[in-house]
Design a protein that fits this description.
Largest sheet of chain A: none
Oligomer: heterodimer
Distance between the termini of chain A: 23 Å
CATH class of one domain in chain A: Mainly Alpha
Radius of gyration of chain A: 24 Å
Radius of gyration of chain B: 26 Å
Distance between the termini of chain B: 20 Å
Largest interface: A-B, 48 and 48 residues
Largest sheet of chain B: none
Helix content of chain B: over 70%
Helix content of chain A: over 70%
Structural class of chain A: mainly alpha
Shape of chain B: elongated
Strand content of chain B: under 5%
Number of helices of chain A: 13
CATH architecture of one domain in chain A: Orthogonal Bundle
Structural class of chain B: mainly alpha
Chain lengths: 326, 342
Amino acid sequence: MDKNTDMPIYAVDEKSGAQGGPVNQGSPEPETTAAAKPTRTLWSDAWGRLRKNKLAMIGAIWIIFIVIVALTCDLWAPQWLGSPTQIDSSQMSELSKLPPSAEHPFGTDALGRDVLCRVIYGSRISLSVGILATAISTVIGLVMGALAAYYGGIWDTIIMRLADIFLAFPYTLFVIVLIAVLGQSITNVFIAIGLLGWPSIARVFRSAILSVKENDYVDAARAMGASDARIVIRHIFPNSVASIVVYATMNIGGAILTESALSYLGMGVTPPTPSWGIMIEDGQTYLATQPWLMLFPGLAIITTVLAFTLLGDGLRDALDVKMKDA
Amino acid sequence: MVKYIIKRVLQFIPVFLGVTIILFVVKTVVPGDPIKLIAGDKALTPEVELQLRAANDMIETDDNGAIIYDDEGNTIATPIWKQYIHYMSGLLHGDLGTSYTRKQAVTDIFAQKYPYTIKLAIVAIIIEAVVGIGAGMVSAIKRYSFWDVLVTLITSLLVAMPAFWLGMLLQLFFGVWMKDWTGGAFYLPISGASGEFQDWVYYILPAVTLAAVSTAYAARIMRSQLLEVMNQDYIRTAKAKGLSRHDVIVHHALKNALIPVVTYIGIDFGGMLSGAILTETVFNWPGVGYEIYRAITQRDWPIVMGGVTLVVIVVLVINLIVDISYAFLDPRIRFGAPKDQA
């Protein structure tokens, strides 16, 4: 951080302090200078840069598309393609394993259900696991990283050793063992993936805090009597939020991959709920004769994970986050 | 240097203890009575059940193994901390218990399974090192060329791809669509089961599948490292004194750029030795990962616990070796400068 950004902060705080209010009432944001110029925040700057990044925009558009599909599919998918879960036993023999056609763009599976419809509904599982599991790991990671970096010393040692212990387990194996212990359900998939993702986020946030903590304005805030929690929330968090956003975006893709692996191994959501991993597992049996059964859900996974990676890369460049150790 | 190694070895101990504690906690909260799992469908007489409980350190026994009863004639449950000590002492004596389903010592089971995992990991790591470093170098040296774009594209796709799906895709391509050319050798190879082809044929697809994602990462790291090193002052000096581009890259840039890549590949080797559940499941590969997965589905906890413990030890030891050799390779650490990693 250069001195120029620090100076107005001092000025504003001193002024409001002099006006007689309690010291910590002074806003750390230089509102006065921002009002004088057209508003150019970190985020508007970043959006300007992100918009020019074609790959990141393709990723973002694909993500928005999938989110809309996942949210609205109840309204149109069943009318068009039939139920994603129910099996019509009277017509099963005619509908079973049909190749892709105009009526069934992705073909039908062994039980006569439309593959496109199941891929569409599968996006719900993938997106919700990706987002919720990442949210869980991010919250745990933030708290752990903040404790480790801000208090340092023994806290740092304990938390970072704990992170080492978690990272020493082979990831997929540990998730599976955890699910086996917790019991197989979609909630436990969120919990297991979320619980095991925190160490890397804690490391990223810890190093972000360590670099922000050195700034003069943090010392200034402390000198004015701000509490630890206030310093972390008002000063350190806004300055490290960029790296968290980038990391979380990329993490969603990883969580989606893990969910598909769990479902493939039969440890994730239970059939007949459509999940891309389960569909691939079902399709493996018919690999030689009906390859579309495993091809389409696989393509859905790749495009979605790739979209999150591209968006994450774009955000990283736009927000100018230096990723280490990620 | 010696100080660094000692420090690193000492760090290993709390991590290892932490891992065993977590595993132990996981084992004790597992739902279901282990004795019922051991018995399976067989009905147990009360005497046999008691003996089994004593043999599995679930109730207190005296030094001769006789069951201790309290004043009312009931057995005494062994406290958790004592069970942990039993588990640890077994571990240190190389005893990981007996499988419920296979009725075999867990150590014997893994002694049979580990060679498959190790062989597969060695083939995969060779692929990763050769292809990853090669592709990364081409990509960096011919920056922004067709090859660079191709490598970037392929690595992005591989990283976004589930490994098990890639395995199936390879089977589909080589085993089904190219059947006339390959003779079907690549379709669902169950290692050496048919004996129709030479052994090494069965390693190709699983090894490629196992190596794919890591190869992509290795290529990316190689590319960014080489580009970063090429920007440094000593490279400019080497160029300025008139060395050819080839000499600059081979004699000056490569050495430094390779350190992080080799470190990554080393750590990855540890990961591969820990048994690739997904790859081994897709290809029915009789290795460690598949065995642990099978044990999880059958609630065979001694194999799960023993297997995960073994695997974690392997990972930790390999990471330790990698860290120490990293210190040997990188003079900045050898001479005591802090390692600049978060």
